[in-house]
Amino acid sequence: MSSHTPYTPPRFLFSPHLETIFPSLIRRVTLQPYTRERIETPDNDFLDLDWLKKGSDKLVIISHGLEGNSTRAYIKGMAKVFFNNGYDVLAWNYRGCSEEMNRQLRFYHSGATDDLNVVVDHAIDKKGYKEIYLIGFSLGGNITLKFLGEKQPREQIKKGVAISVPMELKTSCAKISEPANWIYSRRFLKSLKAKILTKAALMDGLDVTNIHQIKTLKDFDDRYTAPLHGFKDAYDYYAKCSSLHFLSGIKTPALIVNTTNDPFLSKECFPTEAVKDHPFITMEILLRGGHVGFTQFNKNGLYWSEQRAFHFISQP
Questions:
Q1: Which tens digit of pLDDT belongs to each residue from 229-284?
Q2: Within a domain: residue 227?
Q3: Within a domain: residue 57?
Q4: Structural domain count, the chain
Q5: Can you tell me the distance from the alpha carbon of 307 to that of 314, in angstroms, rounded to the nearest whole number?
Q6: At 149, which helix (H) or strand (E)?
Q7: Which 3 state secondary structure label does DSSP give 52?
Q8: DSSP H or E stretch at residue 150
Q9: Of 112, 155, 188, 304, which residue is least crowded by CB atoms under 10 Å?
Q10: Does residue 225 sit within a domain?
């Protein structure tokens, strides 16, 4: 396990919040248009997949963060480095995240590996890819690690990368809800509540009475995320979906990159003892980088996280 890193942020990004917010607001990634494919799920819902293809038999599947989608700069930046280096790329959108509401009452959550499994099976069985590499950011990183650890994945899955991962959901939820992080929790809550209101207008089964009184992500998870996805309450959901509990089952080479100044991550998201002698996990703990940050200015336009992920996946 590495506890140091060559990453150094630009001088003007002198706080965790600047490191987190700057790339999400300012960064623009030039990338050729995706080709969208809609696939059906076993429960009569759909997932929208955005492809970049050049005829490779190697595919990178990228999973976005909470309330993200395939158009976010961090997704496009990661897609670009692999596509430009000979890989096909699939950036998939979770249920309700592709600008069209999904059909079922459920939507997505931090442990929704069933949908990632549908995507992986589609890439193998319908598209014929021989090598598949998984990359996940934040919530998508938690899904990726849980997917790798809860059961042995198919042999085509060769490596995984998880960046800025809230591996322990209960304490990370508390962390992001601290007063110093109100800007993030408020933004997520606003988006999630709008999604629930949209869904309630389209179908029966959602009580939105006093939804505007929900002030924390934990309360939102208690009222909506947990019951809509088969969990008793928020704490049951956090306990059953935290990827921290699945690390011991990982038998696929995996890189985890978390930063100690990430405003989303609790101390439980740095399980140094659990991974110290793990034969398949490389965990790199950075001092700087923020949450899904890693801003870097160079001629190729790549951020540090993209260079690191490419090096890990491309090396023998």
A1: 999 999 999 999 999 999 999 999 999 999 999 999 999 999 999 899 999 999 99
A2: no
A3: yes
A4: 1
A5: 10
A6: helix 139-150
A7: strand
A8: helix 139-150
A9: 155
A10: no
Report the pLDDT averaged over residues 108-133: 98
Residue written as token pair 């509540």: 193
From residue 79, give the alpha-carbon distance in Å to each of 7, 60, 90: 20, 8, 8
Residue 108 has pLDDT above 90, yes or no: yes
Q: What is the DSSP letter of 153?
A: P
The verdict on pTM exceeding 0.85 is yes
Token couple for 122: 């589609």
- Is 11 contained in some domain? no
Residue numbers of the domain that contains 109: 16-170+248-314
- CA-CA-CA-CA torsion sign (69, 75, 79, 80): positive
Kindly write down the DSSP assignment for every residue of 180-205, as one continuous string: GGHHHHHHHHHHHHHHHHHHHHHSSS
Quote the tokens at residue 100.
Answer: 């069209």
Distance CA 268, CA 169 (A): 9
Cα(10)–Cα(19) distance, integer angstroms: 9
Does position 3 have pLDDT exceeding 60, yes or no? no
Q: At what angle do helices 182-202 and 16-26 cross, to 10 degrees?
A: 40
φ/ψ (deg, to 5) at 151? -155, 160
What integer is the mean pLDDT of 161-178? Answer: 97
Structure tokens at 225: 């995320």
CA geometry: angle 44, 49, 51, nearest 5 deg: 155
| Contact status, residue 64 vs residue 91, Cβ threshold 8 Å | yes
The CATH number of residue 35's host domain is: 3.40.50.1820
